[in-house]
Design a protein that fits this description.
Chain lengths: 572, 572
Amino acid sequence: MTTIFDAPEDFATAALAGFAAIYARNVRLVKGGVVRSTKVPKGKVAVVIGGGSGHYPAFAGYVGPGLADAAVAGDVFASPSTAAVARVCRHADQGGGVLLGFGNYAGDVLNFGVAAERLRAEGIDVRVLPVTDDVASASVETPAKRRGIAGDLVVFKIAGAAAEAGKPLDEVERLARLANDRTVSFGVAFGGCTLPGAAGPLFTVQKGQMALGLGIHGEPGISEEKISSASDLAKLLTGKLIAERPAGTRKVAAVLNGLGSTKYEELFVLWTAIARELADAGLEIVDPECGEFVTSLDMQGCSLTLLWLGDELEALWRAPSDAPVLRKGVIIAAEPATAEIVDAEGPQSFAAASEASQQSGKCIARLIGNIADALREAEEELGRIDAYAGDGDHGQGMRRGSAAALDAAKAAVAAGAGAASVLAAAGDAWADRAGGTSGAIWGLALRSWSNAFSDDEKVSDAAVVKGARLALDGVTRLGRARVGDKTLVDALVPFVETLEREAAAGKPLIDAWTVAAKAAQDAADATSSLTPKLGRARPLAEKSIGHPDAGAVSLALVARVAGEFLRAADSD
Amino acid sequence: MTTIFDAPEDFATAALAGFAAIYARNVRLVKGGVVRSTKVPKGKVAVVIGGGSGHYPAFAGYVGPGLADAAVAGDVFASPSTAAVARVCRHADQGGGVLLGFGNYAGDVLNFGVAAERLRAEGIDVRVLPVTDDVASASVETPAKRRGIAGDLVVFKIAGAAAEAGKPLDEVERLARLANDRTVSFGVAFGGCTLPGAAGPLFTVQKGQMALGLGIHGEPGISEEKISSASDLAKLLTGKLIAERPAGTRKVAAVLNGLGSTKYEELFVLWTAIARELADAGLEIVDPECGEFVTSLDMQGCSLTLLWLGDELEALWRAPSDAPVLRKGVIIAAEPATAEIVDAEGPQSFAAASEASQQSGKCIARLIGNIADALREAEEELGRIDAYAGDGDHGQGMRRGSAAALDAAKAAVAAGAGAASVLAAAGDAWADRAGGTSGAIWGLALRSWSNAFSDDEKVSDAAVVKGARLALDGVTRLGRARVGDKTLVDALVPFVETLEREAAAGKPLIDAWTVAAKAAQDAADATSSLTPKLGRARPLAEKSIGHPDAGAVSLALVARVAGEFLRAADSD
C-alpha cells in the first residue's frame, strides 16, 4: 500500500523534491530530474540515466561521483517526456558527450530515443543504452527483447566508473555495452504493489505463491510456484543465471535486490544461501551488494543480478562511488558545484515565415483547439476504457497534452511562426506535458508530421498526406508496437494507408480524410477482441478483452474531429 | 509478511551472518553479534549497542568508524542474552571502558544491566544508557518510562562521534545522556508485521486508519485516526515533538524513519512537508536523514525523530561516520583489523570445593534434571498458553534453557564444583541458551540464589530460604515487573513470602516449600483475570484475559517439581 501523499498526481514530483532536499550534498533539482551538486570536470562524458518513478533508488539515488551525472524522473511507472530527457541532458553535458542509460521499456526507448535524436541535432554526441538484464523476459537468443531490472545499477556503475576515469565517449559506450551483455538478472515476486491513490493493487500474486520472472510493473512472468525455503530460492535464482554463464568466467559481481516490502534481514538470510551456491559453482564473488536498488513501490519479492567479470569490468566494479545509494571505497572528496542552474526557458523564437504559411499555422492552431475541446470532453470516457488494461490515466494525459499543444500553437502563431513550426511546437508541448508513452507518441507524430510542411508555403493537400506517412514512420521507428498489439498503431496504420490510397485515387483531401477516419474508427472498435502485448501485467491484459484500446479510440476520435474541421473550413 | 527463511528459529542468526558477509569491510561476526573489522585505537571508549533482531539496520548496521564499535543481536524482537552482551563487550573493549546503549525495554534493561554488572566485576568500566525517545510511550514528566525507537540512531551517533574523538568514558557518557535527554520521536503505524514462520500478523491496524504512537513491537499507542494527507501527517508529527522543544532551541537534527513497508518515495514526499513545518517553527534543520533506521520487519508506518541541538551536539551530529547505514562526510580511511577473534570458550574451571558442598552440587544437578524433564513435557502446553499474549515461544525457551542448565550443572559437577558454582553455572547457561526476557529472568534468579550457597559447605535449609529471597530481589531489581503485571513475578512473590513465613514459623523446609509451591500455583491460576502490562501489543494483551500467564505457570510448575524432589530426597 502506498499511503503517504497529498495529491496522487504530484507523488513523483514531491518525492523527487524531498529526495533532493535530503541529498543536497549529492544532487540538485532541475525540472524533471536531478543533476550532481558537485563539480564535474569539463570534457567528462556525462552518464545520464532515468525512467519512471516508483523504483527508488532507481534512478535519482544513483547520481554522484563514480556513478551517474544526472537522472530523469517520469511519473510513477511512466517514462519521462522527451523534453525532460533532453533538458536534463543539456544540464549534465560537459562537452564530452552523453551516455543515456535506461531500462528497455517501450516508453523509455521512445522518449530517450527521440531526445537523443534531438540532442544530436543540437550538436551533442549522445549514445543510448537500453539495459536488458532480465532473463525471464525473453530468451537468450533475443537479448535485445529483454527488459531492464536491477541490472540497471550494475551497468550504470560500470559506465559511471569509466566516465569518472576520464575515458572518451566511445570507450564509455563500449564498456557499458560490454557490461550490459554480461549482466543477467532473475527475480521472484510474492505480492504486488499499489499506486498512490489507487483503491487496490496494480497486480497481485496468489497468496503463498511466488511469481517467477514477474516484471517490476507486473509484466508477465514465466510461471508460479509455491513459496520455497530460502535455500531452495537461492538454488532457483542462481540456477537460472548460471545457465547463461559465459565459458571461462571465474568471478562475478552480485546484487541481491529487494523490491520494496521484502526486508533487509530476509535478503541477508537469502544472501548466505546464494553465496554458498555461487561458491559451489566455482565462482568468486566480488564486492556483493544486498539491499534495495530497483524497487516497485511496496512490491514484495527480490531479484538476483550477476555481472560476469573480466579484469576490465572488475576494476570498474570495484572503483569508488559516492551516490546516495552506493558509497563504495574511500570516498572521493568532491567540491560543491558553484554555477547556478537556470531552468527558466524563455519564449521560443521561430524562423521567419511567409504570410501564406502563417495562415496555415493559424488554421492548424484552430484545429488543435477543436481537438483539445474534444479530448477534454472525452477525458472521463477514455480514462474508463484505459482502466481495463492500464492505470486509467489515458484520458488525463490526452487532455493535458492537447491543452499544452494548443497553448504552444497559439504562442507560435502569436510569434509569427509558419505552419511547420506551429505543428512542431504543438507536438513538443504535447509530449512534454502529457508524459508517458502516449504523450511521447503524440508528440513524435505531430513533430514528424510537421516535417512535411514548411514555414515558407501554404500547407498543400499532398503535404498533409505525406505528413501522415511521416507520422506513422516516426511512431513505428521509435515506438515498438505493431498492428495487433492493441495500441494506437492498430488505428493509425489503416488511417494512413486509407488516406494514401484514397488520395492516390484522386479523391479530394476532405473525402479521403473522411474515409480514412472511418477506417480508423472501425479498427479502433476491432481492438476489443485483442489482448494487449508489450509486457502489460497479465491479469490486467486479460481483463481488457472485450474492451477497445484507449489509444486507438482516441486516435479515431482525433481523426474524426479533424475531418469535421476540414469540412467546416472548406465550406467557409 | 516475512517470506524468506529456512528454519524460522534461525532467522536472526542467518540474517546476521548474511549481513556480516556483505559488510565484511565494516564488521566481523562473533557469537551473538558483530564487531568492527577495522582497527580501533587502544584506549578508545567502546560504544556497544544492541537489542532484538527484526529492526535492521538497528543495530548491526550502525557499526563502523564514528558510530558503534559492536552490536549484540538477540532473536527476532527478543533481547540478546546476558552472556551474549557480555561476550560482545569483551571483544569490543579496548581498555577505555564501554558505553552500553539499547532501547528502554524490559528484556534489554535486564540483560544489558546484568551483563554490565558482570563486566564491572571483571574490571571493565561499563555505563548503561537506555534510550528513551518515544514521546507517545510515557509523559514528559516520566521520561525514564519512555521506550526507545528511532532515537537510537541519534543517541548512538552522538556517543560514537564522542568516542571516536578520543573523549574519556565519563565524557562519552555525559554527551550520550545529554543527547538522549534532547532526543524526541513520534511515530504512526498503518499496518503490522509478521514474524518469520507465523501464520498471521503479530498485530494489525484497522484498514484506512493510522495508529498514533504504536510501538515497534505493537506496544499500545495513544489513539487511532483516519489516515491523513502527507501535509497533515507532517503537522501531526512535528506538532507532537515541537510541544517538547526546549526554550531557546534554534537548530535540530532530524531523522525521518520508515518502519519497513513504507517506501523511500513516501518518506521523501513527507519530508518536504516536515521541512516546511520545521522552518515555519523557526527551526534550522541540520543534516537530516530520511530512510530506514529502526524497522519492524515489514511493518507499515514511519516516525520522526528530532535532536535539539546546541553547539556541542551539532558538531558531533555533523562528524563523519562510516557504518553500513550511515556514511557521513568524507570517509575516514580505516585499516582492516588484523587480530583474529577467538570465540571458542574452553571448559569452565571452578573454585576448589568441599566434599559436602560437592554432594549438594550433585543434588542440585539432579533437581535441575527433574525440572528439565518436566519442562520438556510441558513445552507444548506452555507454548499454547503463551500464544494468547505473546509469540508462543515460552515453552521452547524454558525447554532450551533448562536443558542447557542441566548440561552446565553436570559439567560443573564433573569438574568438582561446589553447590554455589553448580547453581551459578546452571543459571548462566539457562540465560545464554533460552534467550529473551524469561531466559534472562531464570538465569538471574538461579545465579542470585547461588549467592546464598558456598563451595565450602553443604546447602542448609536456611540457605535455601535465603536464596529464594536473593532470587526475588535480583529479579525485581533488574526486571521491571511488579505484582499484578501478569508475569512470573505474580507467582514468585507469594512463593518466596510464603516460604519465608512458614520457615520462620519453624516448619521443616519440605513442608514450608510445599505450602509455598501451592501459593505459587494459586497465584499463577489467578493471573487468568489479569491483563499483561509492560508494553504488550494491545490486541494480544486483551486476548490473554481468561488465560493465565505462561511465566507464572512455569514458575509454579518448577516449584512443584522441586518440592516433589525434596520430599523424595528426604525419604531416600
